[in-house]
Amino acid sequence: MTDWGREFAEEARTERPDLTRLCLLLGAAFDPLATERDLDEADVELDRLAGLLPYGARSARAWAAALAEVLGDREGFHGASTDYQRLESSLLHRVLRRRRGLPILLSVIWLEVARRAKAPVYGIALPGHFVVGLGDPLTPLPDQVLADPFAGGREMTGRDAELLVAGTTGETLDPSMLLPADPLDIVRRILNNIRAWAAPRPERSDIALIALDLQLLLPSHPARLRYERAELLVQRGDFLKGAAELESYAEVVATVEPTAADRIRSRAKAARAMLN
């Protein structure tokens, strides 16, 4: 485990994990050139941006307008379709420099800048597109104030949210989708995005492995991630370590899925045979 990974694990297990610190440590784990100074400068930049906001906006809609004016119009934070093809679009310190990133990273910037300014803000993990909400999260649509940092802070209507969910999942918008996202859930989603970026790029399996390692450091994670990590090790040619982790995972599932455990043991045996 890298030093970044150790710090990430420690922060993730605190009583109230700090979203900024988690995202900066996550980003550093994927950036071989990142230094502690880079992370400190990113934190200072968030403070600077918060200082540009007007003090004490009177309503959620006023806060949304102020954030859009400062972060979207003046500072130029937004996204484009090409950003989905770049790993740096998921790394907070790089997004702060480029003013470009994925919806969830731009939303993290909005969240952390707004919180520093004492705005009532929270993240909303809509399927396929992360946005932010302002005001009381229990306010029902159409009165709930939503904004899309990827679009420079454009305010979204309830109908916009409904169409977004329908277009992504084919389902109707469930009120539970509009509840505030937990910091650890945000981090999980970022890591899933990074794994999705690496999946069609076999030459970047190192990135997929780092993402899996960080996910396994979170306080709770699906047991199947251990199986996915073992398979990735085998794909990367680390047959002995991959086989050992497959066998370890087989022991975990043997009591509830003995047939599956046998298949996994066979896979471990096949991995070891690749050395012959």
Quick rundown:
This protein is an alpha+beta fold.
Give a structural overview:
The structure is a single chain. This protein has helices at 3-12, 19-30, 36-51, 60-74, 92-98, 103-116, 158-169, 183-198, 205-217, 224-235, 239-253, 258-273; strands at residues 121-126, 129-134, 145-148, 154-156. The protein has 276 residues and is an alpha+beta fold. It folds into 2 domains: 3-178, no CATH class; 222-273, no CATH class. The chain has a 4-stranded antiparallel β-sheet. Strand 1 (121-126) and strand 2 (129-134) form a beta hairpin. Helix 2 (19-30) runs parallel beside helix 8 (183-198) and helix 8 (183-198) packs antiparallel against helix 9 (205-217). The longest helix has 16 residues, at 36-51.
What's the topology here?
Layout: H1 3-12, H2 19-30, H3 36-51, H4 60-74, H5 92-98, H6 103-116, E1 121-126, E2 129-134, E3 145-148, E4 154-156, H7 158-169, H8 183-198, H9 205-217, H10 224-235, H11 239-253, H12 258-273
Antiparallel strand pairs: 1-2, 2-3, 3-4
Which key terms come to mind for this protein?
single chain, 276 residues, alpha+beta, 2 domains, four-stranded antiparallel beta sheet, 12 helices, 4 strands, 7% strand, globular
Distance between the termini: 30 Å
Number of E strands = 4
Largest sheet: 4 strands, antiparallel
Biggest sheet strand order reads: 1-2-3-4
The helix content is: 55-70%
Order of helices and strands: HHHHHHEEEEHHHHHH
Structural class: alpha+beta
Low-confidence stretches: none
Alpha plus pi helix count: 12
Question: Could you tell me the radius of gyration in angstroms?
Answer: 21 Å
What does the overall shape look like?
Answer: globular
The percentage of residues in β strands lies in 5-15%
Give the overall average pLDDT: 94
Number of domains: 2
